[in-house]
Structure to design on (251 residues):
């Protein structure tokens, strides 16, 4: 297995998780600047986040149905909880699922990440020519890769694709509740990679296709996360500058 690909993906996740949270916070602050009222801000914020919220909760529901759970209590409305000291937390959406065991809980908890990554890959494939980008990167043709990524912005579809990727990415990674529900996700992944590594070191010919498949998944996941971060970072900076000085108070 190509451990550099795994390290690449882990670094991207370490960057993407806090970036996702930070962008949502800035979107909330900008929403407040336009409304000056917490209740109206929640409505505007929920509307802006709705595509990603639908994806996130829809991913949970789909996985829950496939895993034999019974999803219920779907909510797509943001809920604000005051935690004191002028601070609060916001839950964009929620769905209740029945506990179906460690493995299936883990799959349900990471379903939005799987679905979101697949959709971003699809958008990248259709709009930003990801196959050509991947081939260019692998051959060191960085200028060609950059042309493929920036070229679509000369048309409206490039901007539509970028918005779609941003909307998906802001809600596709696991929330704290997801991680608590699927506490075994990390352990299962560790066990999986250790098992693959041991078998690979044993030079098992039968495992070679599996290892290649894992490498391919890591490669495309790394590309998806990297492109998402590159799109999200400037958006975060712009929102941060616009929202600087904003302070949320109950109106």
């Amino acid at each position: 297995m190509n451990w550099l690909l795994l390290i690449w993906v882990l670094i991207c996740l370490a960057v993407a998780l806090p970036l996702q949270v930070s962008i949502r916070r800035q979107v909330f602050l900008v929403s407040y600047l336009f409304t000056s009222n917490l209740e109206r801000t929640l409505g505007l914020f929920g509307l802006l986040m709705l595509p990603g919220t639908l994806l996130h909760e829809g991913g949970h529901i789909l996985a829950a149905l496939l895993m034999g759970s019974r999803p219920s209590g779907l909510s797509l409305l943001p809920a604000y909880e005051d935690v004191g000291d002028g601070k609060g937390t916001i839950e964009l959406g929620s769905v209740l699922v029945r506990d179906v065991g460690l493995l299936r809980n883990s799959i349900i908890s990471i379903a939005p990440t799987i679905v979101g990554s697949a959709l971003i890959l699809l958008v990248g494939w259709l709009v930003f020519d990801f196959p050509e980008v991947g081939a260019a990167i692998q051959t060191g043709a960085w200028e060609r890769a950059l042309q493929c990524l920036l070229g679509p912005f000369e048309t409206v579809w490039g901007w539509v694709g970028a918005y779609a990727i941003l909307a998906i990415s802001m809600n596709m990674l696991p929330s704290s509740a997801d991680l608590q529900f699927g506490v075994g996700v990390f352990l299962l992944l560790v066990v999986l990679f250790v098992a693959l590594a041991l078998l690979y070191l044993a030079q098992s010919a039968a495992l070679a296709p599996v290892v290649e498949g894992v490498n391919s998944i890591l490669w495309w996941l790394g590309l998806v996360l990297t492109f998402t971060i590159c799109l999200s970072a400037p958006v975060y900076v712009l929102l941060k500058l616009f929202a600087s000085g904003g302070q949320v108070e109950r109106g």
Q: What stands out?
A: The CA atoms of residues 75 and 203 lie 49 Å apart. Residues 3-37+98-243 form one domain. The chain has a mean pLDDT of 81. The first strand starts at residue 72 and ends at 75.
